[in-house]
Amino acid sequence: MSAEEPLFRIVRGVPNAEELAALVGAIVVRTRPAAAPAPVAVSAWARSGRPAGATPAAGPGAWRASGLPR
After folding, report:
1. Model-level pTM?
2. Where is this region: Disordered (predicted)?
3. Pair 59, 40: CB distance under 8 Å
């Protein structure tokens, strides 16, 4: 691909400026690599209220088990 070759071309219809901008925006978003989400920092205060080694388990009845003593 040369520097003068277009990245894409419209083969049917005549888009207006807004439609062309939406198309370019969609292409840019789809071709950009996804950024990894930033890790969530948990405060020492929040950690102090959790039992050591306790991780919430998903599944049937998990909401009920989360309120029961271990």
Report:
1. 0.39
2. 49-70
3. no
What is the Cα–Cα distance from 70 to 59, expressed in whole angstroms? 17
In a domain, 55, yes or no: no
Domain membership flag for residue 47: no
Q: Which residues have a Cβ under 8 Å from the Cβ of 51 and sit 6 or more positions away?
A: 70
Rounded Cα gap, residues 19 and 26, in angstroms:
11
Helix or strand or coil: residue 44? helix
Give a yes or no: residue 3 inside a domain.
no
Asked if residue 44 is part of any domain, the answer here is no
pLDDT, tens digit, 9 for 90 and up, residues 14-38:
999 999 999 989 888 888 887 787 8
Note down the domain range covering 20. Answer: 8-32
pLDDT above 90 for 53: no
Q: For residue 15, what pLDDT is reported?
A: 93
